[in-house]
Amino acid sequence: MPTADAVLVLTGTFDPTADLVIEELNRRGTPVFRADTAWFPSRLAVTAGLDGASGWGGTLATGRRALDLAAVRSVYFRRPTAPEFPGSMSAEARRVASAEARRGLGGLLSALPCRWLPPPGRAADAEYKPFQLRVAAESGLRVPRTLITNNPEAVREFASGLGTPVVYKPFTPIRGTLDGRSVAVYASVLEPGDIDQPSISTTAHLFQEWVPKAHEVRLTAVDGTLFAAEIHANSTAAKVDWRSDYDSLTYRVCDPPDDVARGVRRMLDTLGLPYGAFDFVVSPSGDWTFLEVNPNGQYGFVEQATGLPITAAICDYLEGSARA
């Protein structure tokens, strides 16, 4: 029998964050249908029809369960992976099939008249750091002085005019393997010799002023409710980028200043997002500086360390019981 009135969770096979939400929805007795677009077309089948103004009807089905598309109450769009096609298909055939799956299956799901967390298109736009920095500044949040360039001379001029160290940050998470080891590129403070690197000219780079920090804050916003936690770094690497050394971190619940809270809510309204994981630097004098927002960022490590009820707030939203 099809699963009706369910929350559709779209994510990869391994996703501890989605697991938290699914466990809470199960505890509440809310039907959940979990799927990954990588299962399409071999392990996931779609059959849908449109008859006038009644909207799309049909099913999304695995070998064991079926989801009634007309009764989906919400979609938790976490980290689904790309559809997988038979290796026997030619490269051109896979290219065409992938495009058709994106516009067919993806387009059908996006046409469902329900709430999404987050809406995929708006989330994709918000991931552009130049865009989110502009919106943050327009929303009244303090932002670091920033340069985007592939010109080493521009970096030298930027650095000489700051009077503070310069930080390099990648635009997107960079992870991979090198000599059999997992590696990642984090934010880094540039040494004087780094500013003259010819490799700067090979692509776009993002440079910012170093903001003195007493600590950082991860502020998770869910439909207007804000959950903020101080992050205190206790290693040299983590004091530059706390993601580089989770074991050294300690956390403490805090309240954002009123002007920061207003700016966060205004920014999410502008971006059209119900959820955002915000990172701030808090200076020794107490000023909050916006670094970035992830429209689908991790929150489980903060909830585990502080007890902040973020999962419950997400489930409230997906159930339709959160703020309208």
Features:
single chain, 324 residues, alpha+beta, Rossmann fold, D-amino Acid Aminotransferase, Chain A, domain 1, Dna Ligase, domain 1, 3 domains, 5-stranded antiparallel sheet, 9 helices, globular
What characterizes the major β-sheet? 5 strands, antiparallel
> Radius of gyration, Cα only, in angstroms?
22 Å
Under CATH at level 1, the class of the largest domain stands as Alpha Beta
- Relevant CATH superfamily of the largest domain: ATP-grasp fold, B domain
The number of strands is 19
**Helix percentage range:** 25-40%
CATH architecture of the largest domain: 2-Layer Sandwich
Strand order of the largest sheet: 17-16-15-18-19
Structure description:
This protein has 324 residues and is an alpha+beta fold. It folds into 3 domains: 2-117, Rossmann fold (3-Layer(aba) Sandwich); 124-130 and 133-142 and 212-319, D-amino Acid Aminotransferase, Chain A, domain 1 (2-Layer Sandwich); 145-209, Dna Ligase, domain 1 (2-Layer Sandwich). Helices cover 30% and strands 29% of the residues. It contains 9 helices and 19 strands. It has a 5-stranded antiparallel β-sheet, sandwiched between helices. Strands 1-6-5-4 form a 4-stranded mixed β-sheet, with no helix packed on it. Helix 1 (16-28) links the parallel strand 2 and strand 3. The longest helix has 20 residues, at 91-110. The chain is globular. It starts with a strand and ends in a 5-residue tail after the last helix. The model has no long low-confidence stretch (mean pLDDT 90).
